[in-house]
Amino acid sequence: MAVHVLSVLAYQQGDRVTSSVLAESVNTNPVIIRRLLLSLQKAKLVDTCRGAGVGTRLNRSPQGINMAEIYRSVEETEPFAALTRKPAAHCPIGRSIIVVLDGIFASACLAMERDLAKTTLADVIERIRAKRSSK
User: Fold this and answer.
1) Helix/strand/coil for 5
2) Among the listed residues 124, 22, 1, 7, the one whose alpha carbon sits nearest the alpha carbon of residue 74
3) Distance, CA of 76 to chain centre
């Protein structure tokens, strides 16, 4: 949803967009969009002015915003869930599984973020435009 909202803002090329317009594009409630915008604003990706009809715009150019930044701005949990129960310490697997999986999952998260960092919001908009013109 964050990429969708930021893409709408990028497409508007600096014009402010209201949460109602963003919600209509995403097909959700403006309240949900306003909550999302708070996270994006905290990450300094958007600038929001309050008031009727004022709205939000990107804080930087779409070329200066990458997918890893967007991901980090809205994802509060790790993509791989930690074990909820402590394994049995007497079991050879239980003794080491958490440490082993933590290392594997940390490596996977790093790889994902490195890959996401290669794609900018401008790249997303370019792909959207290409998709539209191919129809």
Assistant:
1) helix
2) 1
3) 10
Mean pLDDT of 112-134: 94
CA neighbor of 82 nearest in space, from 100, 102, 96: 102
Residue 23 has pLDDT above 90, yes or no: yes
User: What's the pLDDT score for residue 49?
Assistant: 86
What confidence score (pLDDT) does residue 135 get? 67
Query: Which contiguous run of DSSP H or E holds residue 55?
Result: strand 55-58
DSSP tag of 112 = H
Under 8 Å between Cβ of 40 and 2: yes
The dihedral of CA 110, 115, 121, 127: what is its sign?
negative
Element (H, E) at 98: helix 92-117
